[in-house]
Amino acid sequence: MGVEYFCVAPGSRSSPLVIAVAQNKKAKPFVHFDERGLAFHAMGYAAATKKPAVLICTSGTAAANFLPAIVEASKKKLPLIVITADRPPELRQTGAVQTIDQVGLFCKYVQWAVDLPCPDMNINPAFVLTTIDQAHYQALRHHGVVHLNCMFRPPLTLAKTSDDLKNYLKPIDRWGVAKTAYTDYVTGFESVALPAPKKIASRLDAIKNGMIVVGKIAGKQEADLVIGLSERLGWPILADVSSGLRLGQPHENLIHYFDPLLGLEKITSQLKVDGILHLGGRVTSQKYYDFILKQAPAEYIMVINHALRNDPNHQVSLRVESSVGNFIETVIGLIKPRKPSANLKILSKANKLADKTIEEFLSRQDKPSEPSIARAVSQMIPEDSGLFLSNSMPIRDMGNYADFKGKFVKVNGNRGASGIDGIIASAAGYAKGLDKPVTLMIGDLAALHDMNSLAMLRDLSVPLVIVVLNNGGGAIFSFLPIAEFKEGFEKFWGTPHSYTLAGVASTFELNYSQPMDMAHFKKAYAQALKSQTSTIIEIITSREENLRLHQSLSQTILERLS
After folding, report:
1. Terminal-to-terminal C-alpha distance of the chain
2. Whether 394 contacts 442, CB under 8 Å
3. Residue 465 — φ and ψ, nearest 5°?
4. pLDDT band at 241 (very low <50, low <70, confident <90, very high)
């Protein structure tokens, strides 16, 4: 079925599955000792290729360690095939070693699941094939995770060939010589026409002061279509950094700095919004959601390629289940062309001033800061590479301060459940799937959380450049109201530490540098991009200085706009 990447965690009960992988010349195995990291790696691979990766592990808590990545993959609508080995039924609920209840282990975060019985010649062998074919179809059809729980009895090694076994397998002889799946699935769901496109177009035409908001979409082709739709409507585009419209996209309808701008009353007081066209997934900016809640537009049209609700403010008035590309191609010819709106003129002018202000402000900073590192990476990252952004501050700083005049690169991150676990593993899987160098921007706590996954980099055929922004704790909490709770803020939210990753880099045989100024960072990053070995570049910053710099930069933008 074209599934070739098998992510395997060592274990005994899963031996029959692993033997099958080892003997299959088409299989591309990846072995890692930590099931949690392995699952995030598989998810990163699926994010890059849009093809399912297969996860294999033994019974017990090994399977339970898959759960965080399964949650993230479920929220991101990524295909994964999870195969967990299990004990036979007579050992369930008996206190047998390494035996837990694995049926329904991943709850509602899997699209489809089956509990496969132990191998038995009384069972039609085609049952196995049709079950696997259905699992693969469900993973692709619903863009999600499927779970096959496989019971095995000893012996767990190779079975001896016998006449009985040959006779047993005769019903599936045609599959044994074929190059296709036992059951082929054909569906036209990707090309189904939109219902009532004229009605949708008329609702868009009725919006006088609209905006286009863009979350995660399929790629550059859809990004180009979004720009074309914006030109026809005359509306500004507020594009999340994950959309493919933030980096290397200088079009004047794009409002690259919309998050800092929407935090300024000087701007928001001039904007009047009676309609939103939201394309793709959720955006990172909380300022956007606060702004649009206050604006309370009469029309909020959302287009996304799955059936799940994506409406945290409960404002969506029309929900269209479609790919963004199919939607735009269907309705764009039905929409009346317009001149640039007042909102576009206001935001476009402010966007240019913000860009100039940010560049001047950060270029004066010799000491590395989190915004200046984000902007430097956006300016230097090569076109033929990927960018993976950790949650918390890195994705926000890149979205808010990146230079849009750099190269277009593929951007990804774990914005499903938006946790800080498994980030290094996910980035390694993403690099494996892209088969191109990837830059990962990550905070210190997220890096410490996933140190085990640095072992994966040894087997990568392309380098992963890890830029660690080490502010000695959880910097994002300094921006939240809880920072006013002085009695326990530092201990319980700031989570201070004094660790660096120099020794860790040595342990995992990675290149390492700790530049103390921007000139040395740019030199270190340029060298890392040329290296064939993965690199950690660690930037030591201060949470207090980081907060002050963000506040000062916002004030400078406000003064320039005034």
Report:
1. 60
2. yes
3. -100, 115
4. very high
